[in-house]
Amino acid sequence: MKKINKIRMHEMVSEELRAYIRTNELKKGDKLPSAQTIMKTLGIGRSSLREALRYLEASDVIEVVNGKGIYVKETSQFQMSAKIMVEDEKTALLQLMEVRRALEVLAVELAAQRSTEQNIEEMRRYLLEMEEAGGPASSIADMKFHQAIYKATGNPILQSIVESVWELFTVFWQAPLGNQKIFNSSFPFHQTLFNAIVEKNPEKARAEFNKLMDDMEQSIRQFAAKKAFQETY
Length: 233
Description:
Layout: H1 9-23, H2 35-42, H3 46-58, E1 62-65, E2 69-72, H4 76-84, H5 89-114, H6 117-133, H7 139-152, H8 156-169, H9 187-198, H10 202-232
Antiparallel strand pairs: 1-2
Helix pairs in contact: 1-3, 4-8, 5-7, 5-8, 5-9, 5-10, 6-7, 6-9, 9-10
Organism: Gordoniibacillus kamchatkensis
InterPro entries: GntR_C (IPR011711), TF_FadR/GntR_C (IPR008920), Tscrpt_reg_HTH_GntR (IPR000524), WH-like_DNA-bd_sf (IPR036388), WH_DNA-bd_sf (IPR036390)
Pfam families: FCD, GntR
């Protein structure tokens, strides 16, 4: 028997909404069903839908316009995701780690040089949310923290490149390898990275970010090996 992985409700709802967008071939700007219709169709409550919409907004998949409805924000990532889907989840995660290192090591250096008080407060808020949740298991806060770093670079071209592949990056916040808490050990490096950005120290920010990535990579390898063992025996 294999271990049954727990999936949080908002993740299940967000996947249903993603599937709806793909199945109906919705394009950027197309409107999704109303919140009431979604809740009735999926048999869920308002809080579960609200959390799922917040998650999808953080992933740049949808945009919720108050008083008007829910709209598709971006669809190009879906096609890109389909192209790189592989059976070996560990390999896919490690390959995406390489891409994140290439983009985000530059981002943390620029953020350490250019971040404003507003940027710092935004990062601090999401870091506090993670801490209160016991670490990066608070997937939305973790995702928002890293997005705040990209925003703090003040480089719209870098932000545009990141946004074009962000749907691929969301796998790090969707219970990779079936474990929602796989990256909880990386939380101390989120704190030290933040401190380096506050100190305006790009060299330290780069070093702390690489420690964070090293910890995540080690967790991927360990959990993948454990999962393979459980599936074999």
